[in-house]
Amino acid sequence: MVGVTVAVVQFGGSNCDRDAVRALDHLGVDAERVWHEDGLPADIEGIVLPGGFSYGDYLRAGAMAARAPIMAEVRAAAEEGVPVIGVCNGAQIGSESGLTPGAFTTNASARFQCEPVHLRVERADTPWTAAYDEGDVIEVPIAHGEGRFEISEAAHADLVADDRVLFRYCDADGNVTDAANPNGSTDNVAGVLGERETVAVLMPHPERATLPDLGRSTDGAGILDAFA
Amino acid sequence: MTAYTATVTVRLKRGVLDPEAETTQQALERLGFELSDLRSADRFEVDLDAADADEAADRADEMAERLLANPTIHDYEVAVAER
Fold it and tell me: Which chain A residues have a beta carbon less than 8 Å from that of B23?
């Protein structure tokens, strides 16, 4: 849709910001990179927190960027209903800043993992998943060392009760199994919703599975289509 | 005002998997050491001036709450000493 301007927030050490802009361009979404110190433009209609290694993952992945002043603007925009998605490091920033519950920490393997994974779409009635049906299996790559979703038992029970798990790691047939869990995430959680369905974070990279010439899948395009 | 050092120790909650500690333990065992478990923690030493030790501890506590620890996965403790 013409006129939709999505801000891709660039922190020191972000490195998927250009990928996100290219993927959004491909989908016909007007997107621009916004340096965090410049603050959010007034008229934005969507926000992407891109992947990367903001501030060298100092302290914890996402911890520093989550406390950057622009994140107060992002939280305020999110509360007003502006769609916000955090991808990979952006997911870590989102959870560190309280946009979404839980935390993303060191993979159970203790290794950086860069590989295609399958995700089961757990909700199809959100802006991020309108392109899919519930139970659909999509293939999107991961690339992270700190992607293991951790959450207290009580908060996890609330998350499930509130139906805020957006994606779970699964096998090619959609079975949510330990073997299909790449990083030891609690309950195979790969992506969750915030208090509003317009706020989501996920560790896999939809922008790396959008352009037809790039990689083996375009399954991620449906997620970014939320901005179209 | 008195000069204090507040030592903030941040560690994973009991039951939260610590792959780095497990890997470190395995490396120690590979070197021939015998051990039954290993836990790691981050320690921050914060120099600050405060009216008294309680105020210094309160401020360090807030630093832990707001940045140094992630309450989802961490416990922390604060110890204050005159510097």
Answer: 110
CA distances for A7 relative to A46, A194, A228, B4, B61, angstroms? 6, 19, 13, 44, 35
CB A193 within 8 A of CB A168: no
Prediction ipTM score: 0.91
Q: Active-site positions of A?
A: 88, 205, 207
The answer to whether residue A1 scores a pLDDT higher than 70 is no
The residue of chain A with its CA nearest to that of B19 is: A110
CB-nearest to A150 from B23, B68, B73 is: B73
Closest by CA position to A89, among listed A11, A182, A199, A23:
A11
DSSP at B43? E
Tokens 């800043």 correspond to A97
> Which residue segments constitute the domains of chain A, with CATH numbers given?
5-227 (3.40.50.880)
Question: What is the amino acid identity at position A102?
Answer: G
Distance CA A218, CA A209 (A): 4
Residue pLDDT, tens place only, B23-34: 999 999 999 999
Cα–Cα dist A163/B31, whole Å: 47
SS3 call for B10: strand
- In this predicted structure, the answer to whether residue A4 has a pLDDT above a threshold of 90 is no
What domains does chain B contain, in order, with CATH numbers?
2-82 (3.30.1280.10)
